[in-house]
Amino acid sequence: MYDRTIRRRRLTLAALLACSLLLLTVYFGESSGGALHNVQRGVFSVFAPIQEGASTVLKPARDLVGWVGDTIDAKGRLNELESSNQRLRARAIAGSEALRINSQLEGLLNLDNAGGLAAAKPVTARVIGQSPTVWYSTVTINQGSNSGIRTGNPVINGDGLIGQVSTVTGNAAIVTLISDGELAVPARISAGGAEGIVQAGAGGPDDLRLKFIARRFRVDPGAAVVTAGTLSNSPGLESLYPPGIPIGAVTRVVDPGTDAQKIYVRSYADLQKLEILQVLTTAINGNRG
């Protein structure tokens, strides 16, 4: 039974193939006005309107499918672009961070070399906190006594003096800035040598005063103010600050040439934007000049 079914299918297939070959031979052998060509045209004329109608009816569906596909594709490309932008942004931020840190480290290195501060065994530290006031009178750094830092050590950045260590723990320290009114720094005019004390005024972190300058000394705006270092030869009277560390520049002088003259100084360091600092852990020759 099964064999007869297979044979019938094979005979049917062979007959269809033979018929197809016969029709193709006749079709290509007859003229354009032949019977088979006329049948083809008749079939086309019947089904062409149906095909056109079906195409018109199905066009919105095709457009919808195409729109969905395009939307999915566009969303995929958008996600790829966003990911690429995030990677590029992260690289740009990392690059700018590295440049900024490198610039600060370079400034510290230049100051160490120019002022001979490498002998003070500087410890580099990063600011990890600051006082929550408009005066920014203290900052916290991520190095402490485990790195050799002690209370009273002077602290600098690439622009100059910023303060001294006031509290120390094993792995951190608090630095009191020169904008704190309780901190007084022995200082002098770099060019003329007039000596006095730099101390914060009442006007904020940018309001430093150079006090106790004798009236015989002429001080002009723009004059550089630096640390004076140790002035006395007596033991126990050494200054905490090595001489010659930049502090700031004179901005104006009120009542010059009198005992009541007021000398205003702006710090070279931006005390509100401190990041990389150095703590000078060892006095150099008693901090004498």
TrEMBL record:
GO CC, alphabetical: plasma membrane
Cited Pfam families: MreC
Stretches of the chain forming a coiled coil according to its record: none
Entries under InterPro entries matching the protein: Cell/Rod_1, Cell/Rod_MreC_2, MreC, MreC_beta-barrel_core
Residue span, Rod shape-determining protein MreC beta-barrel core domain: 127-280
GO BP term, example: regulation of cell shape
Keyword line: Cell shape
Similarity remark: Belongs to the MreC family.
Protein name according to UniProt: Cell shape-determining protein MreC
